[in-house]
Amino acid sequence: MQITERQIDDFKSDRKDITPPLPVVLRLVPLLFYCSIAVAVILSSIFAIQFQFAVQKRDNHKTMTASLGAQTQDTRSQRTALEAQIKKATDIQNWVASSRPLQPLLLAITRSMGPRSSIVDLRLDRETDNPSQIKMNLSMGTDSTKQLDLTVEKIAALNYRAFSPTQTLGRGELDYKATLVHQDPLGRQNEEAPR
Amino acid sequence: MKSIDLKSILNFSAFRPEPDDPSASWKKRFPAERTVFFGLGRTALSWRAINRSGTPGELESVRADPKEILAQSAEHIKPLTDRGWCAVSLSTRYVVSLETNLSRRSGSEEMLKSNARGVLGGRYERGKRYALTHNPETNSSILLTFDEDQTRKTESMFTEAGFRVGRLCCGAYVLLKHALALTNTVKGSEQPLSTFYVVCCEGAVCALVQDQDRWLELRSRTDVYEEDLTPITDLLAPFHSRLGPDIGITLVCDEPMNGLADRLGKVFINRTVTDLSQPALLATLMVQN
User: Fold this and answer.
1) Is the separation of the CB atoms in A105 and A160 below 8 Å?
2) CATH number for the domain formed by residue range(s) B3-92+151-169
3) Among A51, B17, B89, B97, which residue carries the largest CB count within 10 Å?
4) How many C-alpha atoms does B91 have within 13 Å on its Cβ side?
5) Which residues of chain B are within 8 Å of residue A11 when distances are taken between CB atoms?
């Protein structure tokens, strides 16, 4: 004979609205709920940490950008100053390159004076815009144009070509004005002709 | 869906049986919850705390009118529980009898609650509650009968004291079924068992004679003994002449009773006494089943 021990017989008054327990499989619902909360907390923590890092990185970038901006400004200022210096140097270089020694010219003009001629006033002007051109104002004490021809000839001998020459003769003085441009002896004209 | 339903899903209580669901075991109904187990006699009330792991605690017992004890000690006992849930073993005002030719339709033992008349037929009485154990090899059955008014009064007594009754049962009947299940383990009638079951529970005594798997005689009395064990042997002594020569004695008590096995050995000479009693046996069975 086999008698199995079943559940204990209960004589308590039964409540009518006793509901059976939910199926075990539905335990997944609260489990998933708690898992989702845990995942949300973990992800939020990760995002919060990453956000802190991102804010720190952004601040670093801002600081770096400001620093680089200041450096750029300094560099620009230095570049502007350097460009100004370059321009100045270029001007000087142009001046030096375009200028020619005026002493031989002055010497040639002086030596071209005859016994009855003298230089009253001699001006050689160079404009900063066009330094290769020399504006010459020569006042000579002479009574003939031969002296002027001789002087012009000496000037031409130094490879200077006179443009727009004007001469005025009166009361024993001869005023001569011309724009001198140096000519390359090999025939190359490296200077612009006067306009 | 109410917020309480949502809460019950989130704390997983919706997946456990309700505390007063009789179809579920005590352990499943109250996992990790402290409860208390009462033993109710005619003139005594005992209680034992059951901790969160389901282990019964020390037994406390007071001999007086149970209603008065409960009224006086409720405030002392209630802190032993988490929510006031208790199980009650009634050891008085019940009848255990041996019946024959009861309905053996499948599920008849479970059907007793809903349709007792259909199972018991002419033996059914209005205003009673029944429990039934069939002998699988013969047409005899053990029938436990409780007065419905008595169970209601017991329930209201505990409710008034601030407890919530999760189970109301008969301790002696539970122990008798436990002894039957422990000893009758071989299916079929090839190894029939003969023994004399003696069940003692909080003053109640139940004796059943089983001869070759047949239940021959059953005697049940409540409020038989208190401290002195002599009334037990006096009650059982007449069985000596009626027992077959090879029938031993199987003793089951809710608590091991010192000297009872020896006394039975003296009354039932030349018969072996097997004592299945264990400390807090009834409380342990209550928790496990």
Assistant:
1) yes
2) 3.30.420.40
3) B89
4) 30
5) 90, 129, 131, 146, 151, 168-170
Domain ranges of chain B: 3-92+151-169
**Angle, in degrees to the nearest 10, between helices B3-10 and A28-98:** 80
Whether residue B127 lies within 8 A of chain A, CB to CB, comes out as no
- Element spanning A60, H or E: helix A28-98
Q: What is the pLDDT of residues B16-31, one digit of tens each?
A: 888 888 888 898 889 8
Record the tokens describing residue B218, joined without a space: 């059953």
CATH number of A100-182: 3.30.70
Neighbours of B137 (CB within 10 A): 18
Residue of A nearest to B113 (CA): A11
Residue window 108-147, chain A: list those with CB within 8 Å of chain B. Answer: none
CA separation for the pair B38, B47 (Å, rounded) = 4
Helical spans, DSSP H, in A99-195? 102-111, 146-157
B194 in helix, strand or coil? coil
| DSSP-derived 3-state class of residue A155 | helix
Helices B148-160, B66-77: inter-axial angle, 10-degree rounding: 40
* The length of chain A, given as a count of residues: 195
The overall pTM is greater than 0.95: no
pLDDT band with cut points at 50, 70 and 90 for residue A190: very low
Distance CA A91, CA A4 (A): 121
